Every structure is written in C-alpha cells, then in structure tokens.
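Re: zinc ion structure - here you go.
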Amino acid sequence: GSGPLALLGPAPGAPSCPHGPALLFVKTSQGKEEGRRFYACSACRDRKDCNFFQWEDEKVSEIRLAAREEYNRNHQPPFTHRQNVDRYKNFVLLPLSKRRFCQECQQLLLPEEWEKHSDHQFLCDITTVQLESPSQLLYPLENKKTNAQYLFADRSCQFLLNLLIDLGFRRVLSVGTPRLHEMIQSRASQEEEFRVRSLLLDIDFRYSQFYTEDEFCHYNMFNHHFFGGEAARETCRKFLYEENGERVIMVTDPPFGGLVEALASSFKKLMAMWKETEKEGHDNKEMPMFWIFPYFFESRILDFFPSLSMMDYQVDYDNHALYKHGKTGRRQSPVRIFTNLTPSMIVLPEEEGYRFCTVCQRYVSSGNQHCEICNSCTSKDGRRWKHCVLCKKCVKPSWFHCNNCNCCTLQKHNCEKTDVGCFVCGKAGHKRSACPSLSRS
Ligand code: SAH
Ligand code: ZN
Ligand code: ZN
Ligand code: ZN
Ligand code: ZN
C-alpha cells in the first residue's frame, strides 16, 4: 500500500513470527494514524523474508495458532547452538585435510556429512586462523532491507578497539558487531596479557558455529528477543555485571533500514539490564555506549537518547562500495559514533585529519570550522559548512536559501513542499522506498 508507516512499538502480548514477537504498526497520512493497526515482523522489512502479518484486532483461530507455532518451530536453524558448539569441538580435532566448510550451506562440515554436500562448493583445509575470523569465512549477508552486513574496515575496527582499551573498558557487549567481537576474541587467544572480553549479540545464527554460549547470543535487536530464552538472557546479564571493577561498554552497529525507535527501545532494555546488575544502581549513570550510525539520523537518535553526542570520526567499511577508504584518498563515509561518554575523552587520530577544538572540547574533522555565530563546529560531513543568517544555522556548502521554502536547501528542489517526512530518515521530499540513506551499495 501507500503512505508511510508508524511504529507503535513492541506491544505486550504481541504474536510471534520466527523472529520473535512482532511489532505493532499503523499506516499514517499527514502525520495522522490512519486505518487499522497491524503486527508485522520486527526483523524483516521485506515481506519476501518474513511475511508475518496480523491485524491488531484480528481473531486468530486455534487451528491457525497451532499452524503458526509449528511454522515458527520449523523455521528455526537446523542445529541448536549447543549442537553447534559440540560440532565445533569435533571439528577442531580433525586434521587440516578433513576440515571443510560448505559455502552453500555456510556450515562447517564433519566428515560423515560430506556426502550430503557433495555437489556443493566448499573450502578445505580450514585453519585455526580462519576459524578465528568467521566474518571472513562467512559471506556477508546482502539483503539490503533485512540484513545487510557491512563489515568494519580493519583500520576502523582497530581504532575502535584501541579507543575502548584506552578508555579503560575490559568488557564489550558487541551488538551486531561480529568483526569487533572477533578481533577481541582472537587477540585474547593470542596475547596472554590481553584482558578484554566480548559477548556478541547478533541475529546471524551462523556465528553460533564458532562461539560458545558464553561468547554469542542469538539476539534480535529490534524487539530485544533472545532466541535462547532465559539462559541466554542470563548469560547477557552476567556479562554486564561489572566484577572486579571491569567496566562494560556496549558497541552497536545496527542495519540502517530505519526503525530507530525499535532499536532505541531495545538498547534501553539492555541498559536497564546493566543497571539492575549493580545494587547501588550505578548512581544514576547510563551504561556507556557507542551507537554507530549515519549522521543524518542524529536528530532521531537524540530524540531517544539525549545523552548521546555525535563524534566526527568516519567509520569505514570493507564491503561497502561507497564508504570505503580508497587508495587515492578517502571517500567520505556518513557513518559516525554516537556516545554518552564525555566527548573530550574520544581522541581521534590526527594523522587521519582530526583536530581538537578547544571551544567545543571535542575532536573534529580538520575541515570542520568552528562557527563563531553558532559557537560550535557545525559540519556533519567533514566539509566546511556555511552559516545562513536567515536560517540562523550552518548548512551544507552546496545549499542556498530559498525564500519560497523559507529554508536552505539544494539549488534544484521542488518548492511545493511535501510535509510528510520519510519513514526512514524523517526528512521531507521522498518516500522511504526512495530514501537516500538506504542506498548504501
Ligand atoms: N560493522 C559491523 C557489522 C555491522 S552490519 C562489524 O563489522 O562487526 C549489521 C550487523 O547487525 C550484522 O552483523 C547483522 O547480522 C546484525 N543484525 C541485523 N539485523 C539484526 C537484528 N534484527 N538483530 C540483531 N542483529 C542484527
Ligand atoms: Zn519475521
Ligand atoms: Zn568548535
Ligand atoms: Zn553557524
Ligand atoms: Zn537559509
């Protein structure tokens, strides 16, 4: 249908699809709710990936409920996490020549299973190093709407890890950051004095082949659903408990396909979990967090987390056609770190073109000029922005002030304003299917 959707959020008693409790949505028009509310899958934006749908006020028959339960059961992965852990133990005992990984099924194979996969492509001689870097072995999921995996470039991943270490954190709750998790895990196994630990929460169950239940939880960050039930929840809770003064930080790099409110609601629940672990309640402090997301979501994110501020650091990706750091100088990545830590503590590398602004008390891109009128370093994208006296703020260098629209915008624009904002980025002028923030590759 037409018209943007509004998320009404996780609802108590919501029905479940294979991805856990569904979320409640409603169609809107001119910012007003219109029509019947309905439940849809929390994880999949594309009906092709999960076609779960139910009207909020729909009466579902016992027969359909039973069929749905069976469907949900049948759509769980073929092996449980426990089984995968046992399989891994057997796999590492095999001589190199017998270690195969099926590329079609994305699965480590035991010799008795070779037969079944005989006409599949496979990799052989899987080394320990390969097992320690599953994000290199597994192909990145590429479904744009549902589960696009954009893996950190080594440089950005190193930067993040070193920053966390310098800030004194010893535990990282890695929510949708498998590459950061694996960097931590492999350093921990290689360096004796490396004390950082990580717990990966991710919806990509393929990772359960490589990590124990203490290292990976199958988790949906759009509805805060632990697929492993209470035991997995408890693993997470234990991990958040700061024993021996080992400080915890949460790092997350969610898919950009919208639903900021759903993410925020889950992150608040993770924060609450952290808070509950400490009897003193952490003196009203929030769990430290890095939320990695494009800069054009800044206002949406701040709506939910006023304590966060956006850093200028540009996060680069490996398998990202547009945002990767090229050989001939860098392409500009729109992805930033949002954090509730004091900005002045986030030291950005001078050799990559960042400098400290003493007025703003934070590191900024070298092109980000301090505006005397705004009294801040206003650029969001690293380029020098210009101040518009009519808008009373700094704007992109390519924008000009349109007297018709009464604001700064692109030279080429349609003055007949569309006042309904895009569902994804909240900006006017396009629908979510055409949202520029979604065209990442
Ligand atoms: N840059 C990160 C990867 C970010 S890609 C890194 O290199 O480590 C987004 C990640 O979120 C992927 O790992 C993907 O599997 C995960 N993800 C996508 N949808 C999710 C969901 N609903 N719940 C939990 N994790 C999800
Ligand atoms: Zn679903
Ligand atoms: Zn400044
Ligand atoms: Zn200004
Ligand atoms: Zn203006």
